[in-house]
Amino acid sequence: MGFFKSILSKVKAGLERTREVLVEGSLGIKNLLLGRRLDEALIQELEARLIQGDVGVKTTQRLIDGIRAAFKAGTLTSGEDVLAYLKTELKAMWPPADRALRLAPANSKPTVILVTGVNGVGKTTSISKLCATLRGQRKTVLLGACDTFRAGAVRQLEIWGERLGVEVVKGQQGGDPAAVAYDACAAALARGVDFLILDTAGRLHTQDPLMRQLGKIRTVVAKQIPGAPHETLLVLDATSGQNALRQAEEFDKALAAGQLADTTKPADATKSPGLTGIFLAKLDGTAKGGIVIAIKDVTNIPVKFIGVGESPEDVQPFDPETFVEALFAI
Ligand code: GDP
Questions:
Q1: 234: part of which helix (H) or strand (E)?
Q2: Cβ of 202 below 6 Å from ligand 1
Q3: Atom of ligand 1 nearest to the CA of 128
Q4: Which of 116, 125, 292 to mutate for ligand 1's pocket (most ligand atoms within 8 Å of CB)?
Q5: Would you say the CB of residue 119 lies under 6 angstroms from ligand 1?
Q6: Of the residues 21, 110, 150, 190, which has the fewest C-beta atoms closer than 10 A?
Q7: Whether this model's pTM surpasses 0.85
Q8: 79 lies in a domain?
Q9: What's the pLDDT tens digit per position in 125-167?
């Protein structure tokens, strides 16, 4: 089996439930469109099904407007035409530059990835997946266990670290997470590793002190490694559908609003870039995979990785071609 085919079948398996509901099932898009002549009634039915499929109101509106205009112009005349149109439009939503991991400049190490998210979304598992991916590319990785809050969090990370051959820098339970981040940066620089991944305590965007703590971690990291963290990834649980979308919006707003800023610095110096990417976990366990589309359209934050299972190998860089083909494949 070719490389693309094997990835496709993995993503396809991960998207099975989404495909069943959004595309294949009795209420799916294919069932609606195939063999039908295009008319206004069909366009309205399609609109309802896209919204039900968690694609989101904004994206649905844009797609439907395009289809209606092309229908009036006579360029789309059948359900098959609409299906092809949807695939093309969806694939074009994610430019390649958006999806690449942001790296430290050439000849400078390490690239620092700060990982955040609400408790239970799959943050620790997703970090292990990132480690496994990077190790698979023969990169050296160090983990910083900045979740000093939850009992067992450090141990969980250490277990993954041992399995994947990655050292973990940790601090005292209940200690200052920013101090762990400091030590982790120092260790990463001393060892000359390619990547430093920082795990942080699960938090809700409404928890002000925890959100400020995240800001403090970013400030400490930036002081030691200029330009870092290069990535601030939010892990989202795809099974939570529209809730995941709200988390993305709120985390991004809180990070970028300077709510996290170091108040001892002038405003400009502490201007925060917000989230740089999303790791969408548990895509295999949900029929709400349409959320990938809504996240892009509403927040413009790129989904960079998708989790399609519980083991470290169950991860894929998000690729629109594969995603759309897997979603619409027969
Ligand atoms: P954390 O509290 O955010 O660190 O979450 P964990 O990493 O401990 O994950 C919570 C649960 O979700 C665990 O049972 C994981 O095995 C599971 N999980 C994480 N990612 C995925 C995924 O992509 N697919 C599936 N099916 N389960 C996942």
A1: strand 231-237
A2: yes
A3: 7
A4: 125
A5: yes
A6: 190
A7: yes
A8: yes
A9: 999 999 999 999 999 999 999 998 887 889 999 999 999 999 9
Domain that holds residue 313: 109-328
Q: How far is the CA of 307 from the centre of ligand 1 (A)?
A: 9
Token pair 């809050």 is found at 149
Q: Is the minimum distance from the CB of 230 to ligand 1 under 6 angstroms?
A: no
What CATH number should be reported for the domain holding residue 282?
Answer: 3.40.50.300
Q: In the chain, what's the furthest Cα-to-Cα distance?
A: 67
Q: Are residues 78 and 154 in the same domain?
A: no
Residues 253-294 pLDDT 10s: 888 875 444 444 444 444 457 899 999 999 988 888 889 998
Report residue 70: phi and psi, to 5°.
-70, -35
Query: DSSP letters of 237-291?
Result: EGGGTHHHHHHHHHHHHHHHTTTTS-TTS-GGGG------EEEEE-GGG-S-TTH
Range list of H helices, the chain: 3-14, 16-18, 29-33, 40-52, 57-72, 79-91, 96-99, 123-136, 153-164, 177-191, 208-224, 242-256, 291-299, 320-328
Contacts of 77 (CB under 8 A, 6+ apart): 37, 38, 71
Q: What is the domain-level CATH number for residue 55?
A: 1.20.120.140
Place of tokens 């067992």: 152
Number of domains in the chain: 2
Name the token pair of 215.
């800001």
Considering the domain architecture, whether residues 74 and 142 belong to the same structural domain is answered as no
